[in-house]
Design brief:
Length: 366
C-alpha cells in the first residue's frame, strides 16, 4: 500500500491540523499548518514547521485541556486569528477584523480549574473527548495557588471514595479569589461565572471602554451579566445601567456591590425573557451588551429583531456560535462595525471575541 501524505492547511476548532487527501478532508492532531504528514498506513511527521516547539507539560497529548503547546506562542495566536477570520468570512470583511490582542501571560494564567476523580482516586483532567481521568501533579496553565491545593484535593478524594457511600462521580472546582485564597467547590455546587484569565480580562474591559467612549450611550442593557465583571468597570457616572443575570448567587453578589458603589441596577431572570419584559414596560436602551455562554445567544435574537436597540456589543468565547448569531443579526438589518479578538486561553484553541454591531437605520453614513 502506497503511503498517503497531506499538507496541513489550517486548524479546526479543536486545534487539529486539516488538509486534503485524495479530495477528502484529513485531520491530524498536534500538527501545524505548512507541515507535511504521512497519514497512512500510520501517522508520521515528514516535514516539520520552524514554529514547532517542545511542549513543557508532561501530560500534553493525553490531557484534553490544551491542544497547542507544540506551537510557538506567536504562531498560536496567528492561527487562531486566521481561524476566526475564516469562520466569519461570509459575514465580516477582513478589513473589519482588528489585529488580535495577546494574553499578557501564556502560562499559569487560569484562576479556575475543574479536577476530576477517577475510579481509583486518581485526580486530574479528562483526556481529549473522553471521561478517562489523566492524573496530574500540576497544571502548567493554572495559577500556582491552585496547583498548591492538589495534595488537599487528593486527600479529600480518597476520603470520599473510602466513605460509606461511594459517589458515582466526583469533581472539585478550584477558584482563586481576589484576596489570594482558594475556594473549593465539590460536584457542581452553584457558583457565579468569572473570566479565568484576569490579565486578559482587563484587556477586554479596555476594549469595551473604548467602544462606550465612541458610542456614548445613556442607557445600557447588559445581558448575561454574571456578578458584574463588566458592569462595574463600564457603568460610569452618567450611564443608566441595567444588568440581567439568571444565576441567583451572582445577582446577590452584584447587588451587594451595587449597595456600596451604586451605578448598576440588577434584574434576575433569563436573558431574553427579562429583556423583552423590560422593553414591554417601556424601557429603552441605546446599547445592549451581552456576554453569553459558549452556545451563544439564539434566544435573544428575536428580541433584538423586534425591539431594535441601536447598537450591540457582543462578547463571545466560541467563534462558531458567534457566526450563527451574526448571520441572524445581519439578516435583520444589523451591520458589523468591527471585530476584536483577545487571547484569553493560550495553549488552547479557544478565543474571546468582541463584535460591535449597529442597526443600519442608526449607523453613520460613509
Amino acid at each position: 500500500m502506497k503511503p498517503k501524505t497531506v499538507l496541513i492547511e489550517g486548524l479546526d476548532d479543536g486545534g487539529r491540523g486539516v488538509g486534503l487527501v485524495d479530495g477528502e478532508k484529513a485531520m491530524v492532531p498536534f500538527s501545524i499548518p505548512g507541515e507535511t504528514w504521512q497519514v497512512s498506513p500510520q501517522a508520521a511527521l515528514l516535514e516539520s514547521s520552524s514554529d514547532r516547539v517542545t511542549p513543557p507539560c508532561p501530560y500534553f497529548g493525553r490531557c484534553g485541556g490544551c491542544q497547542l503547546q507544540h506551537i510557538s506562542e506567536g504562531r498560536q495566536l496567528a492561527e487562531k486569528q486566521r481561524w476566526l477570520a475564516a469562520t466569519l468570512a461570509r459575514i465580516v470583511p477582513p478589513e473589519k477584523i482588528r489585529p488580535p490582542i495577546p494574553s499578557p501571560k501564556h502560562w499559569h494564567y487560569r484562576r479556575r480549574i475543574q479536577l476530576h476523580v477517577g475510579p481509583k482516586g486518581e485526580v486530574g483532567f479528562y483526556a481529549h473527548r473522553s471521561r478517562e481521568v489523566v492524573p496530574v501533579e500540576a497544571c502548567r496553565i493554572a495559577d500556582p495557588a491552585l496547583n498548591a491545593k492538589l495534595p488537599e484535593i487528593k486527600r479529600r478524594a480518597q476520603a470520599a471514595l473510602q466513605g460509606p457511600k461511594k459517589p458515582a462521580s466526583l469533581t472539585f472546582e478550584l477558584t482563586l479569589q481576589e484576596d489570594g485564597s482558594v475556594e473549593i467547590r465539590q460536584d457542581g455546587e452553584e457558583r457565579s461565572f468569572l473570566q479565568v484569565n484576569p490579565e486578559a480580562n482587563q484587556r477586554l474591559i479596555e476594549v469595551l471602554q473604548g467602544a462606550l467612549a465612541a458610542l456614548r450611550p445613556r442607557r445600557v442593557l447588559e445581558l448575561f451579566a454574571g456578578s458584574g465583571n463588566l458592569s462595574f468597570p463600564l457603568a460610569l457616572p452618567g450611564i443608566d445601567w441595567v444588568a440581567v443575570e439568571s444565576n441567583s448567587r451572582a445577582v446577590e453578589e452584584g447587588s451587594r456591590r451595587s449597595e456600596k458603589e451604586g451605578r448598576v441596577q440588577w434584574r434576575q431572570g433569563q436573558a431574553a425573557k427579562t429583556a423583552e419584559r423590560l422593553f414591554q414596560a417601556g424601557e429603552r436602551f441605546d446599547l445592549v451588551l451581552l456576554d453569553p455562554p459558549r452556545g451563544g445567544a439564539e434566544d435573544c435574537l428575536p428580541v433584538f429583531r423586534k425591539r431594535r436597540p441601536p447598537a450591540i456589543l457582543y462578547v463571545s468565547c466560541h467563534p462558531p456560535a458567534l457566526k450563527k448569531d451574526l448571520q441572524v443579526l445581519a439578516k435583520t438589518g444589523y451591520a458589523v462595525d468591527w471585530v476584536q479578538s483577545i487571547d484569553f486561553f493560550p495553549q488552547t484553541m479557544n478565543l474571546e471575541t468582541v463584535v460591535q454591531l449597529r442597526d443600519a437605520a442608526f449607523a453613520p453614513k460613509p
